[in-house]
Amino acid sequence: MKFNRVEITEEAAEIVEKLKQQHGDLIFHQSGGCCDGSSPMLLSKEDFYIDDNDIWLGEVTGIPFYMSHDQFEYWKHTHLTVDLTSGRGASFSLEIPLGKRFIIRSRLLKEEELTYLNK
C-alpha cells in the first residue's frame, strides 16, 4: 500500500487548476513562518528557487509540494492537507488576489504511514 504525506481538498484543487491556467508551471512551498506564519504558498515555478535544503513531500494536482529541511523536522510525523479559506493573507502566494488563502490541516501519521514514509 502506498501512503501520501500531502493531499488537497477539492475546493483548493479547483483554485489551483484556475491558477495553473493563468500562471503555467507552479509549485507549493510550505512557508516557515514569514508573513502569514506557517502556510502553504503557491508560486510560479520560475519565481522560487528549490535547492538541497528543500524536501519534496509529494504532489497535489500534479504540482510538487516542498518544505525546507528544518521545517520538515517539525512536520515529519504529520499528514498535511492543503485547504482553502476566505480572507486575504499576507504572503506572496498566487491565490491572495482572489480573496482566498491556502491553509494546512494536519493530523499525526498513523503507525503504518509513519513506517512507510519515514524509512
Could you please describe the fold and organization of this structure?
This protein is of the alpha/beta class. The chain contains three helices and seven strands, in the order βαββββαββα. It has a four-stranded mixed beta sheet with strand order 3-2-5-4. The chain has a three-stranded mixed beta sheet with strand order 1-6-7. A hairpin with a 2-residue loop joins strand 4 and strand 5. The longest helix is centred in the first third of the chain and has 14 residues. It is globular, with a radius of gyration of 14 Å. The two termini are 15 Å apart. The mean pLDDT is 90.
Set down the secondary structure blueprint:
Blueprint: E1 6-8, H1 10-23, E2 26-30, E3 40-44, E4 54-60, E5 63-68, H2 69-75, E6 78-86, E7 100-108, H3 111-117
Parallel strand pairs: 1-6, 2-5
Antiparallel strand pairs: 2-3, 4-5, 6-7
